[in-house]
């Protein structure tokens, strides 16, 4: 099967043994010079055309030795368990970074095998990235008194932050990055209830750390603009606008979060008109921009309990005091309760009017 392997026959020729070495065993010399065929016997062509087809060849056909794989792929590596709708179209890339069964080296020594723990890591990172962009643009615009940005730039930057957060976590955890989304998935059976605490805690901690990151970056500006920490807390957590009652704020957050989760269910509905495995992140970004432009005036559109509670808890620890929880008649509970209820109702509305009416796949 290897012509070069038979090159020693030329040396025998040169050593005065003559053409006998080339001619003996009839056509044996030709066998090695034919191109091996992967899907057929290399001798088939010769047997069908030469008059000596009944002659026994010097070697019998031998099955090739199977190639030993040096890397063993863990079948559970980065398995998508959840996703917005179990995301059957979420691309997986286990072939790019295989999990080795042998001794790990470098950073792979710290790789975890728990699927749920990896999901929590992904939720933390996605929420953290989203909050770094969001808190960053909030502080830049307000601390510069609209010189370095506008309300439009706030909405655009929040949308981009969501998009990058989705890229960070969608293939692992489904990129909830929102406690209201997690609760809705649990209510409608898309996420096991036992996973909810891990998801929610990861989201709140990610939001807390994102607020801390921007607080360090804006430290000098905050000391110059608000040395006594009286007014700038609104750059981190959300508060109702001037003259807005808590009831109006509750209604605004309820509707805004309902539209958010309804849109998520629509975008990821594979039986309707899904954005596709490469379009989800961009669709989510546009959705967040639209939410800010439509529902941001009354409350600053938290539409996410983790996004509001994490930074609010940070401002309590960072010198703004208890007013972060007591101001506006204890407003802090509204972005939690209204958003959780709104998310469940928004998802339920889509399921009630669209999803449950899809033709059922027949059982085979």
TrEMBL record:
Keywords: Membrane, Transmembrane, Transmembrane helix, Transport. InterPro entries: Aquaporin-like, MIP, MIP/Aquaporin. It is found in: Membrane. GO terms for cellular component: plasma membrane. The chain crosses the membrane at residues 120-137, 149-168, 198-217, 237-266, 278-297, 330-353. Its main location: membrane. It comes from the Eukaryota. GO terms for molecular function: glycerol channel activity; water channel activity. It is a multi-pass membrane protein. Belongs to the MIP/aquaporin (TC 1.A.8) family. This is Unnamed protein product.
């Amino acid at each position: 099967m290897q012509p070069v392997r038979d090159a020693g026959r030329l040396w025998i020729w040169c050593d005065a043994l003559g053409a006998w070495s080339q001619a003996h065993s009839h056509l044996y010399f030709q066998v090695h010079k034919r191109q091996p065929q992967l899907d057929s016997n290399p001798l088939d062509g010769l047997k069908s055309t030469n008059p000596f087809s009944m002659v026994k060849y010097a070697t019998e056909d031998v099955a090739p030795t199977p190639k030993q794989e040096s890397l063993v792929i863990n079948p559970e590596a980065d398995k998508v368990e959840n996703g917005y709708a179990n995301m059957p179209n979420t691309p997986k890339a286990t072939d790019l970074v295989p999990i080795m069964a042998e001794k790990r080296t470098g950073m792979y020594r710290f790789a975890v095998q728990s699927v749920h723990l990896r999901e929590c890591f992904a939720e933390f990172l996605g929420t953290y990235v989203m909050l770094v962009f969001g808190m960053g643009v909030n502080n830049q615009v307000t601390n510069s008194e609209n010189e370095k940005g506008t309300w439009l730039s706030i909405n655009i930057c929040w949308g981009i932050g969501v998009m990058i957060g989705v890229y960070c976590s969608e293939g692992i955890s489904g990129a909830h990055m929102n406690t209201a989304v997690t609760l809705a998935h649990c209510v409608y059976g898309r996420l096991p209830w036992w996973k909810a605490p891990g998801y929610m805690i990861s989201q709140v901690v990610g939001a807390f750390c994102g607020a801390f990151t921007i607080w360090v970056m804006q430290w000098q500006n905050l000391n110059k603009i608000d040395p006594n920490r009286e007014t700038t807390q609104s750059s981190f957590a959300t508060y109702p606008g001037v003259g807005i009652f808590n009831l109006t704020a509750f209604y605004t957050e309820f509707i805004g979060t309902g539209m958010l989760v309804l849109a998520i269910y629509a975008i990821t509905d594979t039986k309707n008109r899904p954005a596709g495995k490469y379009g989800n992140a961009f669709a989510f970004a546009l959705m967040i921009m639209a939410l800010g432009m439509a529902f941001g005036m009354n409350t600053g559109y938290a539409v996410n309990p983790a996004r509001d509670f994490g930074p609010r808890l940070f401002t309590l620890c960072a010198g703004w005091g208890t007013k972060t929880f007591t101001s506006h008649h204890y407003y802090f509970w509204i972005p939690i309760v209204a958003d959780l209820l709104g998310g469940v109702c928004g998802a339920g509305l889509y399921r009630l009017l669209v999803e449950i009416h899809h033709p059922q796949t027949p059982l085979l």
